[in-house]
Fold each of these.
Amino acid sequence: KIIPIEPSSPSAAAMSRFVRRLAGIPWRQIAGEASSVGLLMAQGLCAVHVVSEHVLGVAFPRGPSMLPALNMAGDVLLTDKVSPRRGWVGPGDVVLLLSPEDPRKIVAKRVLGMEGDEVTYPVDAGNSDATKTVVVPQGHIWVQGDNIYSSNDSRQFGPVPYGLVKGKMSYRIWPPSRIGSIDSKE
Amino acid sequence: SLRLHGTEEDCSDRTSSQCIRFRAQFTAFLQCFCTSEVQILPVCSDRIVLIMGARSQLWSIAKMSVTGGVIGVTISDRYVTVVAIKGHSMHPTMTATDSALRGDIVLAEKACLDQYKFSRGDVILFKCPSNHKEVFVKRLIGLPGEWIQLPASSEIIKVPQGHCWVEGDNAARSWDSRSFGPIPLGLINGRVTHIIWPPSKIGRVERKWPEDRIPPF
């Protein structure tokens, strides 16, 4: 039989009341609920990662190099992540790739030539009409911005390995006036 | 399928509030651990059994495997991944045999891909520049902007910005930057940190500078 110990002073009484209230809180239930909510959130974040990295992502391209197909800012594009992995990328597609000059930068350009293709490009757009023809090496692609006067692309950094392509931009979902698929022109 | 029957003190009165409360609490407790619905029948018995339909068992297995797969893919993409070595270009640091089970298995970390900050002598995984489906493992010899000397000739080469120079430890059997030139850092898939198989080789993969090689400047 448990004999309760009488508190000897008012502060001790307050202390024992506090301890009793602490013991009354359902700690195990709260911990169980918190861990299950935490696990659910982790699962949700993992699912978002898998979808946006391997299936379908969203891109916000900025800059003048793809005018007039893409605006300088404010466009929201759906990025198809399945096509590059399966090799379903061809000339005329607008792709997202890691810049060969700085891997932390992602750039959007149009593919002009796949491996083995001959690409003729203006060497110094705006100043002269001189062009040059190259053959794209194996495993590489030639990318160029639609706006050749303001684009840093394969004309400067050469053909890029296909492994740098991270997504194919196929559909614009913002602004509403231009919703629709991105033209794929040669 | 299993069945749960509650053991109650007063079996004669199944609707007594004590019985109802005990069943509710026990159901809530078991629900924390079960993915499918828990049901406790108010039947007098001296054994406790859980109700689970066969179809919901398959569904819970499917749900658990999809969840496990999603979490596994996320961890493998962002933090750490396991790779089996094929090829002899990194002998003797890492060896391969013809059977995938007996080749070396290594651990590669992906945290380095956040800022692309590498050090000379790191062993890295990267996609082959002429075939994006193949992954190679080699040692990083030259960082962006460095001047390095090719081992065979006395040529000096500058590694362009955003690129790196890779070479295998086994120079005779390694197809590396000496053939395909510097590779863009964007092709890198991860940095190898440990060997985890075979047990005799378990340990860290050290950052090592090849002997007789002039360091870059």
Note: The mean pLDDT of chain A is 90.
Amino acid sequence: SRISMAIHKSLFASLLICLLFQISHGATKERLFSDLEKGALEVTAKPSRESVLDAGIDKLSITWKLSSTATKEAEFTTIKVKLCYAPVSQVDRPWRKTENELFKDKSCPHKIITRAYDKSPQSFEYTLERDIPTGTYFVRAYAVDAKDHEVAFGQSTDEAKSTNLFSVQAISGRHKSLDIASVCFSVFSVLALLVFFVNEKRKAKIEQSK
Amino acid sequence: MAHHNEDEGSIGTSMHGVTAREQVFSFSVQGEDDGPSSHTARFDDPTAKFALPVDSEHRATAFKPFSFAKPHMTAFHLGWISFFTCFISTFAAAPLVPIIRDNLDLTKSDIGNAGVASVSGAIFSRLAMGAVCDLLGARYGTAFLLMLSAPTVFSMSFVSDAGGYLSVRFMIGFCLATFVSCQYWTSVMFNGKIIGLVNGCAGGWGDMGGGVTQLLMPMVFHVIKLAGATPFTAWRIAFFIPGFLQVIMGILVLTLGQDLPDGNLSTLQKRGEVSKDKFTKVFWYAVLNYRTYVLFLLYGFCMGIEMTINNVISEYFFDRFQLELHTAGMIAASFGMANFFARPLGGYASDISARFFGMRGRLWTLWILQTSGGIFCVWLGRATSLPIAILSMMLFSVGVQAACGAIFGIVPFVSRRSLGLISGLTGAGGNFGSGLTQLIFFSSSRFHTADGLSLMGIMGMIFTLLVAFIHFPQWGSMFFGPTSDERKSKEEHYYAAEWTEEEKRQGLHEGSLKFAENCRSERGRKAASDGFSHSTPPENGNPAHV
């Protein structure tokens, strides 16, 4: 009975701790994408060539400036520019889903550049990183206030995310040296086994004939 | 008295001893013994040369896990570590999926199908492995599997699309048949009294590989990235580690291992007259016994669910709770690592309940453990905060892994003649269940992964109701007692029913009768008051685990 009391107490304690976690976590997840000011920044992203871009090699010329329709300019402290998935690259891939809750949204995982906010038009020459997956993308710039909360954004495509998209082809990740090493170790594995096997059979035959 | 022996090489013998309840002999044996210890040794080798105490077949009668003494403990360690290594290789891709899916442009269906493929190959390789061990011995059986599947692990460096990824995972999955070779090896090395504990440790510690890999692969990946490789190359290099482990283990098995206590298969001569049991008969009695199918399905929802979780849980924590890759791996690893104590615990619980309530106690224990596993699985799917998800996952892991241990507390009693085949079929059921649950719940965008987990838990609980249908005329079932028919309520009647009249006249069923006498303890506390002569039922430790 004392043991069951102890078990009850520890279960209750852990439940309490979990509840506290729930409450504290819940408070920070309320900020929504739909609350942000749309089109506060005018963003353009020009690929270095017209065809599918190669990760690790090709570049994007990105520019952003304050839009004439922006109202929350006073709060802008930093600009975070990100590479985002177009809807076609989100199909059957729930880990890239667009969510309204900013904390949960996974559609813009790749950081391009973060710069302090400047009134004058900004530009950046971005070389596509080697870990960018194959897909179709656009560029979005979030305007962030001093508390690191997003307040506004601008993107290089329209609201339906259908214009000005560009495609990227990922690196394969394969290397000739890796392929060769793989073949060598595989051959070694099979050969070692065969050598052992044949050797032992031979020894057994010799012993039997004695 | 007729000879009753199972020479190595006869079909089905490879799985004998897998569970704690029968005697396993490497060589032919006289029928008039009432235990292995009174058999006159056919060789003059002094048993003093062995580091462990041995019986007349030179099988160890003591289990010392910290010893590496040749040949018994060496065989034990080589066996379970080989099995452990294969679990690492089979589930090595799972914690790296967040990287692999970006490199190969995989969809959720691609990932799910590859997961199904990774467990499907072993359904067949496990069934074939028994025959392989009978023909080549445990040493070569293990080494062949390790060293011929190592190339499949290395070939991850060539994969460039979803099709390649699926093929490689399918081929790697074949090596899970090391379960069979591991259990076969310990069965010829250890005496029947302790084989339950030995096999339980070997099985449980091997299964831990599915947990360790969730920790190992992200760490290796991280180190390789620090060394300068780009992520899409680093994960391919990471796969060389399980490949190396397999090759190294293969070489160790060949150089340090020994098939049998007295030497290797090829250098020993077979003696004695052989009356091999016919495979068709063994197969027939397995197929006719409805409990085979029930166990096949039940194991699919404890071991099967466990293997499914090995494939999906790391990605689940990574995506749902926005964790780092190695943090998600750590959490996922604790699921598989619980095997170290959870499986033996289940077998132990089964043995304890049998002491009081007999077979009915075992059935209820299984139902309780597997159903609680299902309940906590549902809770895991519902959990929206990290601490609750971890708590529910740990409770879920203990429930479902203990259920795996508990099932093998029941398998030994289902059949005496077809024991090996039924044990193998139960094991294959685990892979089948894993393939099925991954196909239904985790291969399409129909369900969010969280909902998939909850639905899988519910499906598991529904299938676990099948335990109620396992009925033994001599012991009863969950809701019914033993039959009141005087003749049918004897254990002998149940086990002798597997032999035809002709075979009974030849005395081939002697072993079954002896077994029936030994398992009267499955009546529970009533057995004590029956005043029967208590033979050598191995009550300590748990039967084998897959």
Note: The CA atoms of residues 104 and 124 of chain A lie 28 Å apart.
